[in-house]
Design brief:
It is a single chain. The chain is mainly α. It has one domain. Helix 1 crosses helix 2, helix 2 crosses helix 3 and helix 5 packs antiparallel against helix 6.
Length: about 110
């Protein structure tokens, strides 16, 4: 089985996943046949091997909350991860969302 790249392990640390949980998630990505999961896996492998990558753009697209949650949901549907495993992961991802202060929301509506 393909071991997870260091970047994946660091991403798991960021999401407060244990090494075992990160490996389980990586194994699910490796075994998946669905395109979104395969794209996420390939993106991590590519990002690790490309020192010139725009990390900010990559993180905002590949690792966006929407993308990570969508991949988790598809891995459950495909039978590669359990609902129990993805619930904890999705909760961590959602906890990272910073709410926009009401004053900024008001400015956005008046623009």
């Amino acid at each position: 089985m393909e071991p997870p790249p260091r970047l994946w392990i660091r991403f798991g640390d960021f999401l407060q996943r244990t090494p075992e949980e990160s490996r389980r998630w990586w194994t699910a990505l490796v075994q998946s046949r669905w395109s979104r999961a395969r794209e996420l896996r390939q993106s991590f492998l590519l990002a690790q091997s490309c020192p010139w990558i725009d990390v900010q753009h990559w993180a905002n697209t590949t690792c966006s909350n929407q993308n990570i949650i969508a991949v988790c949901e598809e891995l459950v549907q495909e039978g590669k991860l359990s609902r129990q495993h993805t619930n904890g992961l999705e909760e961590k991802v959602l906890a990272l969302i910073v709410p926009v202060p009401a004053t900024m929301q008001e400015r956005g509506r008046s623009a």
